[in-house]
Amino acid sequence: MGKKRKNEKKDKEGIRGQGGKNASSGSGSGSSQSGPLLKVSRKKGLQATWHDAETRRLCCTISGVLSRDECDLLTAKLQGGWNGAAWDFATSRGPKHGEAERHHKRLRWHDCDVARALWEDSGLEDVCRKALPRLEIEEQQPRGPEALGRSPLCLSPDIRCYTYERGDVFGTHYDDSATVSYERALRSPAKSQSSYKEDNGRVGARYSTEYTLLLYLNGGGGGGDALVGGETNFYAEARHGGKLLYSIRPSAGMVLLHRHGHECLLHESAEVVKGKKVVLRTDVVFTQA
Length: 289
What we know:
By secondary structure, the chain is mainly beta. The protein is 10% helix and 30% strand. It has helices at residues 68-78, 112-121, 124-131; strands at residues 10-11, 48-50, 59-62, 88-91, 102-110, 152-155, 158-164, 169-175, 179-181, 206-216, 228-229, 232-235, 244-248, 255-259, 266-269, 272-274, 277-286. Strand 2 (48-50) and strand 3 (59-62) form a beta hairpin. The longest helix has 11 residues, at 68-78. It is globular, with a radius of gyration of 18 Å. It starts with 9 loop residues before the first strand and ends with a strand.
C-alpha cells in the first residue's frame, strides 16, 4: 500500500486468520459464554468530527457509538478472556531496535459477530458511509463503468482489546493496512445481496483495510478511578517539525477512525498517569471497486 517510510515503527500485529495465535475458529459468537458478546442499540444522530478539517480524510471521531452501560458490560465480559482467547502482554524491543516502546495487556480473537454488530447495529455503518472518503481504485482491480472509487464495506473480524494501566504506553508508530478474506457472517443477509453497481462482499475475496478503528470503553470524568493520560496523539513527520497535530482524549463509547497504510499519521497511546484505559481495536475494510 504505497511507499514505505524509512526506519518506520509499525504496529506489527497485522491480521491473523482463523486458527492463528490468539484467534479462534468459527464466527466467534461466544455462545458458550452466556450469549453474544456485543449487543448494542442503534444510535440516532451519530456524526463524524474531522480533526483534519481541510482534508477530511486522516482522522475523525464519532461520539456515542456505545452507551456507557454497553461499554461497562462489554468490559466486564472480556475480563476473563473470550471465545478461547486469553489475555497476554504486548511488548517490544524498544526504539533502539527500531520498534515503538510498547507495554500493555492485549486480548485478541477472530469474531465476525462483534464486527457485524458494531458496524450495523450501532448505526456506525451509516455515518461511515457518509463521512469516509471514496478511495482510489487500485491499478490491478477491474474498473467498471459505474466505478466511483472504493467505499467502506464492513469491519475486520480481527478483534483486539487493549488495557493500559498506570505507566503503560504504546509509543509513536504507524499502523499497516492488512488483507481480510471476506466471510458471509461479516454482514447481515439483507446487506450481502449482489449488485452490479457496488461491491457488497464476495465470500473468499480479499479486501484491504484502510482505517484503524479504536472504540474507547472508558475515559476521563468524575470519580476517583477516572482515567488520566492515555490520549491518542498524532504527530507531523519529523521533516515537518514533528509537532503535535491532534490529541484525542478517551471518552466512553467514542470511536476514533484514522487512516492507516501509506497515509497513516505517526501516532501514540500516551502514558497512563492514573486509572486504566480500555479500548477495542479493529479496522474498516473497503470494497475493491
